[in-house]
Amino acid sequence: MAAQVEKKRRRNVLLTRQRQAGIGMLLPGLIIICGITIFPIIYSIWMSLNNVSLTQNGYAMSFTGLSNFNAVIHASSFWHSTWFTFYYSVATVAAELIFGLLIALAINNVQKLKNLSIVVMLIPWSLITVISAQMWDYIYDGVYGVLNYIVVSLHLVSHPVTWLGTPVSAVSAMMIADIWKTTPFVVIIILAGLQMIPNEFYEAARMDGANSWQVFWHIIFPQLRGSIALAGLFRILQAFGVFDLPFVLTNGGPGTATQSLAMLGEKVLFQDLHFGTGSAVAVATVLIVLIISLVFLSAFRSLVTEGEAQ
Amino acid sequence: MIQPMWRKVVGYVVLILFLLMILLPFYWMFVTAFKPDTEIAAYPPHFIPQHPTFSHFKQAFVQYNFWPFIRNSIIVSLISTFLVLLFGSMAGFSLARLPIPGRTGIMVALLVISMFPAIAVVSPLYVLLKSLGWLNTYQALIVPYTAFNMPFAIWILRNYFLQVPGALFEAASVDGASVFRTFYQIFLPMTTPGLFTAAVFTFVACWTEFLFALVFNSSNAMRTIPVGIALFSGQYSVPYGTIFAGSLVAVVPIIILVIIFRKWIVSGLTQGAVKG
């Protein structure tokens, strides 16, 4: 009896010690993360409710309630940027997922060149976006760009086109630059998912006389659905913050055709120096991201529990 | 699985076309760096440089002073990566193996935080850094980079710590080893692949980051490579040759890194953790 109580007591001591050590090891990281992400976001909300003016050695704030948001909501540039950012993100990511899936399915059984392919596919991923934007800027050049040379030589157009000069072509040009950079990354993820499907699945399906489409729809797709959905969600949220690509490639233009929400925020904050209004744009962006995240929260949760089951 | 000949052929054709699509724009940047200015603006373009030259590399480093950008990027990225590994591995271990209240909640919160766009925090951080007198310093980038990359590192490392058999932890605590000692003497060495993965991802993210670097460190001496390259453009024309020469110097070390660490990058991408 006494021995059992003693054992229980020692176990409790051990648990308490482990808990204390765990909190001690977790806290430094959490404090840095909260200090640089959560606290600034809260402060951003506060700034968006104030009229902020930069002074010589700091800034002065005066509370103005929702007037910054009122200004933002009534600014057509905000709605334009929101709409552009939204359809840019959705269309680009949809294209990346579709191309990624098709390419991965086609090359899944190629046995040779594996190492080389992986290295090549990782190059765009590791490339500084600013560099790839300059690269595409040169390719798209309206006078001597190589793209013009190619389409003119193929007689697709008769004169060189200023690709970044009209809204429709500038948006497409920007999407292509992003699709070029991120599709290989999607291919790698989907390839890894395909390798996890046991060969017996295919064999069994073939025995039952399933054709290629049936194999894809009933065997492959259900296995991949989760990872595709998650990759897509992450990519959309990431594309929502797009800044460097339009900053270098189009500078938001022509006009404001490619001005993303992040670019609008940066412009209002650091070029117009309207910190209150700029913070309101930033807070609105976060709200949109949060809504998207909350819609998919259940997907996040299942990811956590999946990890725990391992 | 026996597969028909045509599928094999299609596979090879698609793979080679795909690799070419990736490499061709890159090839174009590469050869442009070695072309004299007259060839860069030539139409029709030359697909192979007629008079290859290293003059743009000289221009980038002498006239445009490119070296400090590289130095700044290396300092900021290396220190941030080290700090992320230091704090991230402790937090990841703690969340994987120790009885912390609210673990699932913390993990979900970390995931959501890592998805916040940088623009969300840039104005308060700017004001904060300004009042600390930290604008145009290394810490102005190191601290935000550490904070922004840690959630993802914690996720990856936690997954690796979960794969180490729990019995090891029990055994160590029965032997009277302290929790921290168990962590760094037993668990940390067993999760070196995870550390590599987290390190490469953090390093690449810091190396490529643009918004913070542009806003916080705008003075010429403190710019990182992306800011330097973005603001390279001259008043009248874009000096593509110089830009691409500088870019190649910035890109080559990363490509070497990718070749060495490709296995860990792929495992990081597929560990249920997807971030570009």
From TrEMBL, chain A:
PROSITE patterns (alphabetical): ABC_TM1 (PS50928)
Give the matching InterPro entries: MetI-like, MetI-like_sf
How does the UniProt record describe the way this protein sits in the membrane?
Answer: Multi-pass membrane protein
TM ranges: 21-46, 86-107, 113-131, 170-194, 215-237, 273-297
Q: Which family is it part of?
A: Belongs to the binding-protein-dependent transport system permease family.
Source species of the chain:
Alicyclobacillus fastidiosus
Places the protein is found? Cell membrane
What is the name of the protein in this document?
Sugar ABC transporter permease
Keyword field: Cell membrane, Membrane, Transmembrane, Transmembrane helix, Transport
- Coiled-coil ranges per the record? none
TrEMBL record, chain B:
Instruction: Name the residues that span the membrane.
Output: 9-30, 74-96, 108-129, 135-157, 236-261
Task: Name the domain of life this protein comes from.
Answer: Bacteria
Location in the cell reads:
Cell membrane
Q: Residues in domain ABC transmembrane type-1?
A: 70-261
Task: Kindly indicate whether the keyword Iron belongs to this entry.
Answer: no
- Spell out the family assignment given in the record's similarity comment: Belongs to the binding-protein-dependent transport system permease family.
Q: Which UniProt keywords apply?
A: Cell membrane, Membrane, Transmembrane, Transmembrane helix, Transport
For the keyword Zinc, the answer is: no
**UniProt xrefs under CDD domains:** TM_PBP2 (cd06261)
Question: Which PROSITE patterns is this protein grouped with?
Answer: ABC_TM1 (PS50928)
- State the protein's name: Carbohydrate ABC transporter permease
Q: What is its membrane topology?
A: Multi-pass membrane protein
